[in-house]
Write a structure and sequence with these properties.
The chain is of the alpha+beta class. The chain contains five helices and six strands. A six-stranded antiparallel beta sheet has the order 1-2-6-5-4-3. Strand 5 (82-88) and strand 6 (94-99) form a beta hairpin. Helix 1 packs across helix 5 (111-131) and helix 3 packs antiparallel against helix 5 (111-131). It starts with a strand and ends with a helix.
Length: 133
């Protein structure tokens, strides 16, 4: 699994639509619901008349973890939900990436949030690994 300063994930040998479905299934298996779906390609076409690769942003939320985070820090909703991206690569494969909750919540410097972020990260990493099968 690849790691950046703000996320982690991988390129998978799946066509885009299949990668989207597997990602949603993997997130569900880890207790995440999808609160929002942003079709970036569609939005770019409608708003800018610009062509863009298939690219979906999923707003994923694990309700028990979100509740713990909100109880610890009321304004943490600014950093929720956890975004997950599925995009089509030039070679027909797909890239699946999740935001790193530890990176996002780390800016708050709260011990309670550190624990929640670690649990969310662990679940998201398992989901990302499961997408490739």
């Amino acid at each position: 699994m690849e790691q950046t300063a703000y996320g982690f994930g991988q390129t998978v040998r799946l066509p885009y639509e299949q990668a989207v479905e597997r990602t949603k299934e993997a997130l569900k298996a880890e207790g995440f619901g999808i609160l929002s779906e942003i079709d970036v390609r569609k939005t770019m076409k409608e708003k800018l008349n610009a062509d863009f690769r298939p690219y979906l942003i999923l707003g994923a939320c694990n309700p028990p973890l979100a509740h713990k985070a909100l109880e610890a820090e009321a304004d943490i909703g600014l950093l929720l939900p956890c975004n997950v991206v599925v995009r089509e690569e030039d070679d027909g494969e797909s890239r699946v990436m999740a935001m790193d909750p530890e990176a996002a919540m780390g800016i708050v410097h709260s011990a309670a949030l550190t624990e929640v972020a670690a649990e969310a990260k662990s679940r998201l990493q398992r989901a990302m690994a499961a997408v490739s099968g």
